[in-house]
Amino acid sequence: MGVCMSNTSGLLETKKSGPHALNPRGEHPAIARTNVGVPCVSLLTQETIHYVFNPDLVDKEQCCFGYSEVPETVRRGHCPSMFANGEEHRRKKAFLMDVLKECKNRVPSLLLKTILGHFEEWSLLKSVPDFEDRVYYIISEALTEAVFGTKLDGRLALTWLNGMIQLKTWIPMPAYKKKHNLAMEALPKLLQSIGESPKYEELTRLCRQHSLQAEDGMVTLMYAVLFNGCGAVTTAIVTSVARLQTILAFEKKDLQTTTQQVISEFGNMTEESLGEMRELESFLLEVLRMHPPVFDFWAVAKKDFTVSAGKVKEEVRQGEQLLGSCFWAQRDVSAFLNPGLFRCRRFLDDEEKKNHLVFSHGRFLEAASLDNHQCPGMGIAFILMKATLAVLLCYCSWDLQDMPVWSDMTSRLGKPDQLVCFTWFHFHSAEARRALGL
Ligand code: HEM
Hints:
Residues 1-28 are annotated as: Disordered. Helices cover 48% and strands 11% of the residues.
């Protein structure tokens, strides 16, 4: 079961093969000892991945994802909620959950307003080569306006995001270093905009209520919104647009018709009407099953324990790194028939299947809480993803530059290998405004 490899060769293999490095012979092990840049015990099935979610057994390593890290220079030494443990995590998560709860009902209308403005602008362009970045601008403008009362500069936010993660290696990485320097320069500008935002006083009051220093709270919130939130949502939208290209024509037509029916019935896009778009939801869940934006969940054993899967057992020692592979757990044949096949209606035909999704750092149907690291932004994420895709499906036309192909490169976060670009884009703006009562 053990694979002897140095950190450097392990890292290079992981960079080359992504999650396939964990399953090189296609044997689908439940547990594997390997080296992906650091030695780790990887957990690859529905049965074993849950050990990585158990705070009684594991802790988060401060600001590290196994072989990579978020250096203190891009977070002013503060520790975002997803890397915090125990009491610090509880305080930070409680603060974030309060903020997200307060702003959620503003998200649909702010998003639609932002989408209309951007799509009208895209329509005037000859082509949209930077489609991926432009989705990030839409999502971050809408979400930052909901949270801070003013939109933060999307380009600055993306510069910060793109330079945040650094590899732990001696190999010189000039491209990473350059992005890191740009991210460091973006950070004070973003914090300044937040300091001048209409909601700043209210947010710092909330920080005090949760015993957080203002800057600690703001960096934590910025990370949650721009990294956890906008990063993952943008990726899922881009992957969905690529997937729309690969499904059968009648399946795409069905998605369009059923979404259009809901819009006609409600005449708007609110949490309620979005909740009725069940075909679109099943399509999205299938995108997130096959192409989760976060492939790997990392943790460190805080005591010795045994991981078991049927007859297979592995002793884990305190201090060892664990890697829960969301990518493989969501391709586990014990839960999903033909897991390598993209099936739009998989979650419509069988609702129970949702229990086996773990892309939110735990069971999809289990709520986020102060005692777990599960994503507290799922409600908002589905509003953002469904509303954007509904407008794209019902009121836009485009052509992709390349037929999407997936070799599951970790750096692409679930998106196809090549950048997703439009050779042309048209937005039926008047029709959209009429249908949505805008
Ligand atoms: C499809 C979209 C999304 C996916 C797939 C996703 C997934 C995840 C995952 C896997 C984690 C755990 C990361 C880890 O601990 O290693 C996480 C945490 C988190 N997410 Fe999301 N997320 C999404 C959208 C959002 C949105 C829209 C927000 C905010 C509005 C958000 C806020 C957070 C926060 C604050 C955490 C940290 C939780 C904690 O500290 O316990 N996420 N998310």
